[in-house]
Design goal:
Elements (H helix, E strand, L loop, with lengths): L1 E5 L10 H9 L2 E4 L2 H7 L6 E3 L8 H21 L2 E5 L8 H12 L5 E4 L4 H9 L18 E5 L4 H9 L5 E6 L7 E4 L10 E6 L2
Parallel strand pairs: 1-4, 1-5, 2-3, 2-4
Antiparallel strand pairs: 6-9, 7-8, 7-9
């Protein structure tokens, strides 16, 4: 099994309890750099630092992902491989591209992610700026390919409105991590609980 674990924004005290447990249980912990290496050091039995060059050259990136996958997969097949990275593994992360390659080339291998405290939530706390209204997070384009909507109690109606903006893929997670949790994909219900989050994508 390969598990990507979010290590938070860089403060060792902001690792989650689940992150600490998974790091301690791992046969090998793989990290993309020095900061992550320092954060996992107190818990990991074996640490392997992987190279991820900062470049936009697709050939270089693909070759890098192939090399790193070849190092990780044997450990993941034999036991527990953990990939620890700063922030959250699903938001603008090094892991997303790597995971796609591993899933494509090794379809029988289980790959999962465990959330960490992302810079998106950490910066509001650090800057002491509360966020109570809608906000946009982007790494460049002003027209986002993904929207995350909170408290969506009428998901079918909301999806119809978003289709006019070009969104065509919808997932609703209702009561996440709570009793009665339900993930709705494709066919959405008319009504959901107050604790419901929609992810709308242009795919």
């Amino acid at each position: 099994m390969l598990t990507a674990v979010g290590l938070g924004p860089g403060d060792a005290e902001l690792l989650t309890l689940k992150a600490v447990r998974l790091l301690s249980e791992a046969d090998t912990v793989f990290v993309p750099g020095g900061i992550a290496s320092e954060l996992v050091k107190p818990y990991a039995r074996e640490i392997v630092v992987l190279e991820f060059p900062m470049t936009r050259d697709e050939e270089v990136i693909t070759a890098c992902m192939e090399r790193n996958a070849e190092k990780i997969v044997p450990v993941a097949r034999a036991g527990k491989a953990v990939f620890g990275l700063i922030g959250d593994p699903n938001y603008y992360s090094t892991f997303s591209r790597l995971a796609g390659m591993v899933r494509e080339r090794y379809p029988g291998l289980e790959v999962e992610t465990v959330p960490g405290i992302s810079s998106i939530t950490a910066v509001a706390s650090h800057a002491q700026i509360p966020v109570n209204g809608a906000f946009l997070v982007t790494d460049g384009p002003a027209d986002p390919a993904t929207k995350i909507l909170m408290k969506v109690t009428h998901p079918k109606e909301k999806a119809e409105l978003l289709k006019s903006e070009g969104y065509n893929d919808f997932t609703v997670v209702e009561r996440m991590y709570m009793d009665g949790e339900c993930v709705h994909r494709g066919t959405l219900p008319e009504k959901t609980n107050y604790f419901s989050i929609m992810i709308a994508r242009k795919v």
